[in-house]
Amino acid sequence: MVYSSSSIRAFGSLLCRISNGVYLKPHHSSTLRSIFLLSGNFSSSSSYSSSDIKVLPLELQSSNSVRKIWTSSPLCMGRRSCKIAGRKTAQDLKKAKLYSKIGKEIVSAVKKGGPSPISNTVLAALIEKVKELDIPKDIVDRNVKRASEKGQEAFIEKIYEVYGYGGVGIIIEVLTDKVNRSVAAVREVVKDNGGKMADPGSIMFKFQRARVANVKVTDVDRDQLLTIALDAGAEDIIEPSMDEYDTEADSSERVYKVVSSAENYPVILSKLQEEGIKFKPDNGSELLPTTPIEVDDEAMELNKELMSKLLELDDVDAVYTDQKY
Hints:
5-stranded antiparallel β-sheet; globular
């Protein structure tokens, strides 16, 4: 049978959809029971539509379970297109989470100390943080007003610990005004995506809380950053993982993490600024794994899917893992 060029491109796109939008459950030895079925009228033309392609589930059978893989992510042309789309989604989500967390912190500060930054030092500090992180001023105004609305409660910080695939630990930071709602939502996502809730403290000890300054790899020479940061008292410089398929755009999004204690953090930022090195401060602190865990590709993708679903929850502000990338 002879396949046209458009058939081959269609099949490649389907593989891309699977690599970016599937849900899998752990398995041991598996055998393939059924595979894709491509049907439709393909021509030698370079264009086609997703309506020309029919996809049946990919079913894998292990000794004790059957796994079905359904594709649901948008059609994209090749690995590079998929990575660009995924990177933009991640950037948008990260920004939304930052704005959401700051907003909730402002509501809590106003509920406890009033709407005036003159008398409310916590609110004043948050306003300064907003300026440092280049967050729109209307985020402050909107949430100060929100705090005075009838029925609006102060937000409470909660931390949940989860076991992922391959022995990976996951920490979920939540800021919520309804604790029962948040824990129920987290439990549901963890269960649906193959994770397991862990007892308090069973995962957290694998992480250290630190202050972090993020410096884009394209904005600084590596050796220069190492010299300046370590001389200023930085505890560590975490280098980003690299991928052989990285484009120039991918590289521009990768950052060095300059790790510091809370006490020395202002010194680090001041030194970087003095040396003309652009950086982005953290949003209070970050959790860094003391010993990252290496897992196989399948476990890595499953953990990414679990963390992605957790970050979609409104109450969740941050998700950390000790998985090595």
